[in-house]
Amino acid sequence: MNFFDLYRRLDQTQSTNDKLAALVDFFARADAREVAWAVALVLGQLPPRRISTKDLKALALRRAAVPGWLFEESHASVGDLAETIALLVEAPAPVPFDGLIADFIERELLPATDLTAALESAWDRWDAFSLFVLHKLLTGALRVGVAKGLLVRAMATAWSLPEVQVAQGIMAGWSPVAASVEALRTGAAVASAWSTPMPFQLASALEGAPDALGPLDDWQVEWKWDGIRAQWVLREGQIALWSRGEELITERFPELTHAALAAELSRAHATVVLDGEVLGWRDDRPLPFQDLQTRIGRKTLNAKVLAACPVRFLAYDLLELDGADLRALPLSERRAQLEAWVGAVHPGHPALDRSPVVAAEGWAELAALRESSRERGVEGLMVKRKTAPYLHGRRRGDWWKWKVDPLTLDAVLVYAQAGRGKRSNLFTDYTFAVLDADGALVPVAKAYSGLDQKEIETLDRWIRAHTRERFGPVRSVEPFQVFELAFEGIGPSPRHRAGVALRFPRILRWRHDKPAAEVDRLADLRARFLGGAPA
To answer: Are residues 354 and 342 in contact, defined by beta-carbon separation less than 8 angstroms?
Structure first.
């Protein structure tokens, strides 16, 4: 069984159980090198891009001998460039690729200085689906569409391993070689990397009444911080900082990771792994997330940038201490050890502190405190079961996020673009606008989620019938359809034409009852959410 067989099975179903079965079958049967590359591709670790879409398109036009206008019409109909080319160049008697993707990548793709010969050879033999996967691979656009949690579950099932071992082994870093598969199966992948973080535990959204959880005394409550979820790892006299997205962000935050701090703490503790939040912090309160973003995107961090947004790491869990893995302990015991550890290093190291526990007499008092979240610069509350161990992934029942209700505005659809993958033939990416002081429409947000399939299809037909102009894949449409957008925050942004940026915008509902002339005004948004701050 090769990666192409797996990809074909995954592409033919939306069922999670069917995808899991396909993955388990693949991991149980496939060659170790093929497994190694398949895992890398699922994780998004693609080989370097070897051909531009422009050059691929030019080769395809020459091969298919079709005029440019016909190609563009075909592309518009199919919706995906790689698939369009595959359909146009498919051989008269095509066959599925039956080799190993490991061999193709290592022997043909990576060493080649000119891929024309390999591409022509594939076009002479392979079927359209195999070519579609090949084109995605060559252009760096391959997306497998498998969540990491499902990947972990499948490998654990196929190899009879604990899921936590697989999850942590992947976090240690993945190389697409057979030795990586063996190291993962034996646990050597985890043991070999000093900086390896633990798989993160995630919370579920609390949607019902909180008192349904039972007595408040059974739960530990904290603020839900609006920063970067991270793990702070001290081992072998060195510090590593990992984001929840498994990106090493050590160099972004020298206040938390400098060598002097590592050396001082190492004298007292051999290892420490903290789970917590990186926050911009000043005057004993968090700074807006937009301030923290000014540091994330910069290549160099000079003294001015560091001073503009000082940071703090607030720890809310202790996962490892002096070589002991604490994750199996109940939260109450881990919290007690966290209090003792952070208390010993603070205030000598004010950039490290613990996330405070929120005290309340009952759920009603806690609900009242939650209403003050935005004034405190937080997103709401976290509610964690005191007796729970630290698990990996989203395990419903022990961790709940009780967020404040989102902010909302009404805006009108002005631009639309086709989606990707299975939605590449539908317009699913939308740009919305509000009114400026002169009554002109100014784009304020993009949103990609919030509509069900029936609404997407209805809106897609409307967009096609009411297109004003085309700008490549983007269409401007008549400003008629109004939507209520939800978002988590808003801040000034000189990079955006409206002068503001929304955090996590999404569609809340389609406002069939509201005309475009009654959407929100930019000045009103600034007055409501930014105190009237100008752009």
So the answer is: yes
